[in-house]
Amino acid sequence: MKRKSVHEPEAKLMSAADVWDDAQQIAEVLRQNLLKAEPAVQLQVPLSVFLSALDSLSQDELVLLRQRVEERLAA
Amino acid sequence: MAQTKHTGRLPGATYAVSNTGPLISAFQSDSFPLLAQIFAALHVPGACIVELERHGWEEELLAAMPKLVPLELTADEEERALTFAREIAQHPDTSDPVVENHLGEAQAIVLALRPEYRDDLLLLDELAARAIAKEAGLKVSGFPGVLLLATQNGLISAEELKARLETCRQQGTHYGAKFVQQVHTMAKQGRRIK
Questions:
Q1: For chain B, how many structural domains are there in total?
Q2: Chain A residues in contact with B123 (beta carbon < 8 A)
Q3: I need a labelling partner for B34 at 20 to 30 A (CA). Which of B1, B24, B90, B122 fits?
Q4: CATH no. for residue B47?
């Protein structure tokens, strides 16, 4: 374990709620920048096709999807 | 070692300008590779490099290059940074009224205000500097926010997040035990606390 000093050890830092907002902001900035990398097209996808696509998602992807759904439901 | 300008930009990539605090947290918890995975590069102003060296992080600084890029400010930018440092020193959320002690955050704010960073992020943990940076229109995040994003994207588990924040806390970074627990809970439950 490294034993070195920190900067401004008594500084007031952000709250836990701020941390959540930070993470959402980073995700949004990353997404926006990725979108700029290549042109995007809007596609109409039938709901049944979308639902069947869930079968191909990995465990990690399903966890992410569940988080997103829960956020939307809680909003 | 330091450049004046950030040249060249990868398409679709996001860059971060960072202050000293988030980098020390990243070094304490061996999280710099994670930051380098999320951001194309981290750009750091000269005053922060001086602070990092003063606190004994030279070895980690060197190991972090070329993903960590030291940048020098112009004379005009250094003047602007001094103004920001005064504002931070007078802010109600700081207990340190010494202007020079806020030069790192102030230089990071001025660097992030360059037009080439308009789509990027500024990493700052200190409350007063974050408030000033947001007033200046910057998109701000702290080191714990990067860790939380990493859990949300499946890069690390909620338990790893907790362990990393706890490591920082034990080494003197001012993350309280309750704060670490709350961030861990959000990472596990996938929802914001009130």
A1: 1
A2: none
A3: B1
A4: 3.40.50.1010
